Amino acid sequence: MNINSLRLKEKLLKRAARVSVIGQGYIGLPLALLLANSGFKVTGYDVNSELVKELSRGETRLENETGVRDLLMKNLGVNYFPTSDPRELMESDVVIIAVPTPKRDGFIDLSMLLHALKLSLSSVKRGGLVVVESTLPPKSFENLVLSEIAKFGMRIGGDIFASYCPERAMPGKLIEELVRSYRVIGAVDEDSAELSKALYESFVEGEIEVTDPLTAEIVKLVENSYRDVNIAFANEVARVCEVLGADVRRVRELANKHPRVSMLMPGIGVGGSCLTKDPLFLYWIAKDMGYPPELISLARRINQSMPYHYAELIDEFVRSKKSGKGVVSILGLTYKGDVPDTRESPAGNLVRELIRRGHLVKVYDPIVSEHFGAQYFREFEEAVKGADVVVIASDHSEFKKLDLRKLRALAGEDPVLLFDGKLLLDADEAEASGFIYASVGNIASLINIVSRKLSKVGEIISNIPE
Asked: What are the pLDDT tens digits along the chain (466 aa)?
């Protein structure tokens, strides 16, 4: 190790390094708080001044995340200092970048990352460490991060140290997963890797692997692509069960008794920031390099098609019952149960498609006020009153304990469809309560009601909006 890296490592081990985290959202805030809790003085920077004001008052938008508020209250003003003033980042020993890298109109938007990178390089001390946690498309570390370092006249591994350590945490379990999950560090030189490892060892209990940046970039995207592909298979099986008249829950239960089968649960689609984005990043870059990964692309399209498929079924049911528009009540708008996150939620696509088809859509969610253009109700009873169709679109704990007879009494005139998009309810109990029950992978009762055949999977997949 050179003199700069030796000095920084000593400061890291003594918790004397001044750390700044750019981005105080889903990953940046918990990360900053964990570092503060381990003894570092941490500046949490965000361009959103209102967010910073909330944090300064001890308020967090991650209230549902276990441990976040406790860590905030414990470290605020002691080891954690939120700010929207970039001048407070100056002379940092370590800067960590945790800003979004979203997809926009079929492209990878790295503008926030580039801005944060320039801010980091202008703020970090000579001999300091810059770590990128934001998800990167392959070769971005080489083509963007190292390029910007060179533009600043710095020599990697000497004047400055840098690494890529992609986040891998699930909303709902952010603190737990940031602490216990294994981490991958990608670096082009040994000193950057060793310094990054020393930083993360201050709070990470899981294994920390060191590799090159390109491998780290691909690993992050492969992990989420793997999950997306496996969910797509479950959704494909659900569609097969629907056309053959079987129940996917029973099929899955028996198939998973095989020692080498572990089929996931199907649903109305895939949501969240990572699973809907990371497979596309991998696909787009590989395609540009000469190979378009067919399985990854098809899996993404199958999962994206699911809410449109079920909008079609609901539309057919309503039109078999009455002429004109129907009333559809959507219960749950988040993509994950008991987590207030509506990013890329399939419920949003379902709502928008039903509105496009002319139906009156009413929505209720106990933990978010998002509505996706529908009529939002704070009271469950108002949301379901007079409904022709009731859809369970999120697996919130509240919906697992629904009083189905009360729900049926509030809904509209017979027949009323209860569509279980999360496979939460018992079919026999739902039908005994007076509903026509259908679910993902089990639409036998619905087929008996609608007058025309259901659309083929290929037609749905080929016609979904980009």
From this structure: 788 889 999 999 999 999 999 999 999 999 999 999 999 999 999 999 999 999 999 999 998 899 999 999 999 999 999 999 999 999 999 999 999 999 887 788 999 999 999 999 999 999 999 999 999 999 999 999 999 999 999 999 989 999 999 988 888 889 999 999 999 999 999 999 999 999 999 999 999 999 999 999 999 999 999 999 999 999 999 999 999 999 999 999 999 999 999 999 999 999 998 899 999 999 999 999 999 999 999 999 999 999 999 999 999 999 998 888 899 999 999 999 999 999 999 999 999 999 999 999 999 999 999 999 999 999 999 999 999 999 999 999 999 999 999 999 999 999 999 999 999 999 999 999 999 999 999 999 888 777 544 444 445 445 544 4
Determine the length of the chain: 466
- Beta-sheet strand order (sheet of 436-439): 375-376, 360-364, 327-331, 389-392, 417-420, 436-439
Q: How many angstroms separate the Cα of 134 from the Cα of each of 22, 56, 74, 101, 165?
A: 10, 24, 26, 7, 8
**Matching residue, tokens 């945790």:** 98
Distance CA 42, CA 37 (A): 9
CB 268 within 8 A of CB 347: yes
- Which helix (DSSP H) or strand (DSSP E) does residue 138 occupy? none
User: ∠ at Cα 357 (351, 363), nearest 5°?
Assistant: 25
- Asked whether 113 and 134 are in contact (CB, 8 A), the reply is yes
Helix or strand (DSSP H, E) at 74:
helix 68-75
Active-site residue 401, yes or no?
A: no
Helix ranges restricted to H, 107-154: 111-123, 140, 146-151
Cα dihedral across residues 368, 387, 392, 274: positive or negative: negative
Neighbours of 56 (CB within 10 A): 15
Whole-number Å distance between alpha carbons of 130 and 116: 11
Place of tokens 């990167």: 136
Of 274, 325, 276, the C-alpha closest to 301 is 276
Give percent helix, percent strand, percent coil of the chain, each to the nearest 5: 45, 15, 40
Task: Give residue 309's Cα distance to chain centre.
Answer: 22
Q: For residues 264 and 230, is the Cβ–Cβ distance under 8 A? A: yes
The whole model's pTM is what? 0.91
d(CA 197, CA 311): 48
Q: Which of 9, 125, 197, 220 is catalytic?
A: 220
Residue carrying the six token digits 């709502």: 351
In this structure, what is the dihedral angle of CA atoms 408, 361, 417, 333, given to the nearest 10 degrees?
A: -90
Find the catalytic residue in 274, 277, 321, 422.
Answer: 274
274 in catalytic set: yes
Structure tokens at 348: 């949003």
